[in-house]
Design goal:
0% strand; mainly alpha; disordered N terminus; 2 helices; single chain
């Protein structure tokens, strides 16, 4: 196990968490972001299928789809190694 200050900047060590908790924070963050991307994608599909071809539902569905792509990128980046 590492010490409290062994992780780099921008990690959970800066927040004062113990070193054994650092692996959980990265996996939890990635998992939550991927789950949020899945929920945003499901909401985009729901809005697209229920809203019809009017302007507001189409713009909303497209923006939710883009948000889900962004969240998925953040979630997958949390799983990459630090170095």
């Amino acid at each position: 196990m590492g010490t409290l200050g062994s992780a780099g900047p921008g990690t959970a060590a800066g927040a004062g968490l113990p070193a054994w908790f650092l692996w959980w924070s990265d996996w939890a963050e990635g998992g939550l972001l991927c789950a949020a991307a899945l929920m945003a994608w499901a909401l985009a599909l729901y809005v697209a299928t229920r809203g019809g071809l009017r302007r507001v539902p189409v713009v909303t569905a497209v923006s939710l789809a883009l948000l889900s792509v962004y969240l998925l990128g953040l979630g997958l980046a949390a799983f990459t190694p630090e170095r």
